[in-house]
Amino acid sequence: MNAKNLNILLWVAVTFWLVMMLNSLTAPDQIEPRSLSYSQFLQELSDGAVKEVTIQDETIKGLRTDGSRFETYNPGDPGLVGDLLNNSVTIRAKPPEQPSVFMQVVAAWLPFIVLAGIWIWFMRRNSGGGGAGGIFNFGKSRARQHAEGEVKVTLRDVAGVEEAKEEVAELVDFLRSPQKFSNLGGRIPRGVLMVGPPGTGKTLLARAIAGEAKVPFFSISGSDFVEMFVGVGASRVRDLFEQAKKSAPCIIFIDEIDAVGRKRGAGLGGGHDEREQTLNQLLVEMDGFQGNEGIIVIAATNRADVLDPALLRPGRFDRQVVVGLPDLAGRAAILEVHMRKVPIANDVDARTIARGTPGFSGADLANLVNEAALFAARAGHSDVNMEMFEKAKDKIMMGAERRSIVMSESEKKLTAYHEAGHAIVGRLVPEHDPVHKVSIIPRGRALGVTLFLPERDRYSMSKRQLESQISSLFGGRLAEEMIFGPEQVTTGASNDIERATDIARNMVTRFGLSDGMGPLAYAEDEGEVFLGRSVTQQRQVSPETAQAIDKEVRTIIDRNYQRSKRLLNENMERLHTMAGALLKYETITKEQIDDIMADRRMREPDDHTGGSTPTTGGGTGTAQDGTAPKQPPLPAGGL
Ligand code: ADP
Ligand code: MG
Ligand code: ZN
Fold this sequence. Notes:
binds adenosine-5'-diphosphate; ATP-dependent peptidase activity; alpha/beta; Rossmann fold; 14 strands; protease; ATP-dependent zinc metalloprotease FtsH; Methane Monooxygenase Hydroxylase, Chain G, domain 1; binds zinc ion; Helicase, Ruva Protein, domain 3; ATP hydrolysis activity; binds magnesium ion; ATPase_AAA_CS
């Protein structure tokens, strides 16, 4: 008997019982007797009008000689029986009324029945909705099951990650027709791990699989396993796999698996026990089913490096699909996907935009299209043109303009020299990304911005490129100092200095790019993200080594600081010209900077699009080197 039937039965029983109760309370006697007071009764008795009485407890029912009935209440008169006998009245006595056996049972069990009813009601309510969360379903998996046709995303909506798409499509294929594969003796992987930076479309890809697969799809996020109570995560894992087994073939998707899958034995203090139990349970479950059962577990993370090695063992997540940042062609394809949703003007070319947005992830590009549409709406246009995309790009790369900030003339002048310093050094050092735009309109927290854009997608950086970056970072601060004197230098360069120091330190401790320290790693790889591990297992360096590292960092910084200084000294005229142009126009572009550097008369900025056409050149690198230092097109400026 399932819970539903039980419930119905219960309600029938309760209703039945209620009716019985009401009945027994109000059931009328055959003929309604008239109620008498006791004294009236005694009077009638002595008058000889009473023929017969029935005494039950304190109730006296009687029949008169004239055939009418009456009823009265006996206050406990001890002389009553004597009086009755004296008046030769027939006396019947009944034992006190007992409730029926049925009623006794019902009365005894009623509280339990009601409680059970409430309990069943809660259970049904909580297990029903699927993940709505409730007080009785700690151990439930919380996975959401997607019915066929419920998810509208398809593989067409995912662009620019072709390799990942192919791998994933193969899995979907398998689940649809397992025979095709098993006939050939192929064993399908049990677990597939999607790895890639945030916003590259891992979750989107999983949803697309759900949309494409004609099999049940369970999706859950790693953090759903983590709960305040010990043991809950493990039981959720168990429950999830139980559900999945019932509906195999099917797909289980665990998003952000690093929330549970981190290396074990590395946490600090309490709390990690629970996570370990959950992870252990996950490992057990993944071992517990055979590849041919038709369950495929897909997980996604952007931190594959922190995952427990046991998870990546063969038979578990042994297949990894890299979902990387899109290349030029990929970006264009992603832009086209998102442009389908907005009215686009004829002058818009996805490939041109893609060329100007190296390092953008799929999510960034989606955001770009959205921002452009918002700009167009604000401007009252009926479609989104290239100018809007250009504005959106600037906003995303450099931060929103803050024209409300009022800078004093001297602040403006200082900012202009600072940014011009960045731009000039950036133009002159070898292999530096070309400067794309310089602006002294405050954006975000910066008073000015110098934007460099790589000409092509870049997956690694050379020592020379890194050093050039350090030089251009110092350009801003140095320009301030040269023009206004060491006393006038502002705090605005702190971010530049910090970033230059970071680059230099990483060159020494991580990239093995220093002269003195050799190709050794002296630093934990981003260990600070996982504090527990870092503290307990940090790679220790001796004090002497630490000193040597500092010295080496110092050397790199000094070398580039001096180079920057020399370049600015040699180009003092151009520095003045560029700062002047910035004060006049607020924003200057690549072409105008070209003019200044060639000592030509600077062309006027033609308003709007022309002045800011994206950098030319470009290419499609396809190599994917996940270990390359991430180099998003960050503004080097920002006073
Ligand atoms: P993550 O890899 O961090 O899980 P998401 O899948 O959540 O990234 O991506 C966020 C959003 O960015 C998506 O909803 C989609 O609009 C957009 N996006 C990301 N990657 C792509 C892509 N390859 N193709 C199309 N849109 C994408
Ligand atoms: Mg995601
Ligand atoms: Zn700066």
